Amino acid sequence: MLKVSNITKHFGNELILDSVSFVLNAGERVGLIGPNGCGKTTLLRIIMGQLVPDTGGIQIVPSHARLGFLEQGFAQHGAETVAQFLQVGEETLAEVEERVATLAVELSRQEPQAHLLEAYSEALTRLESLATTQPAVHEAESVLAGLGLAHVDFETPLAILSGGQKTRLGLAGLLLHRPDVVLLDEPTNHLDIEALEWLEAWLRCYSGAALIVSHDRAFLDNTVTSILDLDPETHTLTGYVGNYSAYIETWERQREK
To answer: Where would I find the H helices in the chain?
Structure first.
C-alpha cells in the first residue's frame, strides 16, 4: 500500500535520513521510533509530499489510496467552527442526492442532452465522494465522545478551544474521513486514559495501514504489529517484528552478541 524507497535527506550539510526504505501494507500498524530530532517527523512529511527528498521516492498502491496525517501542531485549515473543520453534515449529502434524483427525472422526460448527461455524471461522482468521505453527524458525535470532546458543540469556534482540545479535534477529523493510510505523529499527546483506550481500540480494528510515531511504550505495545527503529547515528532504519516489548528483547539480544 505504501512503499518508501531509498529516501535520503539532508538539511544543509547535516544528514537526516540515509537510504531509508520500508513497505507498509493494509492491516499493518507500525511504530516509528527513535530519539527526538532523529528525523521521524521529517520522514512523515516526505511521505505526505510536504518535503522533497534528496534521493528516493514514495509509491502509493493503489494510486487513489488516501493518506491522512496527524501532525503534532494543530492545523486549522481556515475552518471557523468544529463542524466546518470536521466537514460534518448530512444536509450536503441530501442535497446532492436530491440533485441526482432531479436530473434523473429530467433525463427520463426528454432526449438525453449533452449538458444534462454531464451534469448527471458530475452529480453522481460528487455523491459517491461524499458517501465515502463525509462523516455523518452521529459518526462525528461518537468519535468526539470517544476522544473526550462530547461536550464540544459543532458550532463551537475553534479559536476558543484549548491546545489539547484542538489536538483531539485534529485526530477526530483524521479518523472520521477514513483514510487508507494514517500517519500519526505523537497521537497520545493530550489524551486521558479513556481517550487513549478508545484510540487503541480504534487502531486495532482499523483495516488500513498505520505508521505511528510515539514515545508511549504502553501505547505501542497495545497497538503496533512491528517496529521501525530510526538510528540517530547512522540515520538508517531497521525493522523488527512485534510490538515495542518484543523489539526491546530482540535489540538487547543483539547488543549482547
So the answer is: 40-47, 82-86, 90-109, 114-133, 137-146, 163-176, 193-205, 217-223, 244-256
pTM over 0.85: no
What's the number of CA atoms in the CB half-sphere (13 Å) around residue 122? 7
- Residue 159 gets which letter from DSSP? G
The predicted model gives 214-242 an average pLDDT of 94
Q: What sign results for the dihedral spanned by CA atoms 156, 198, 66, 71?
A: positive
Question: Residue written as cell 433525463?
Answer: 107
Range in 19-28, 88-97, 210-219, 247-256 with the lowest mean pLDDT: 88-97
The whole-angstrom separation of Cα 229 and Cα 33 is 5
CA gap 220, 69 in Å, rounded: 18
Is residue 239 within 8 A of residue 230, CB to CB? The reply is no
Residue burial 159-179, b: 16+ Cβ < 10 Å; e: rest: eebeeebbbbbbbbbbbbebb
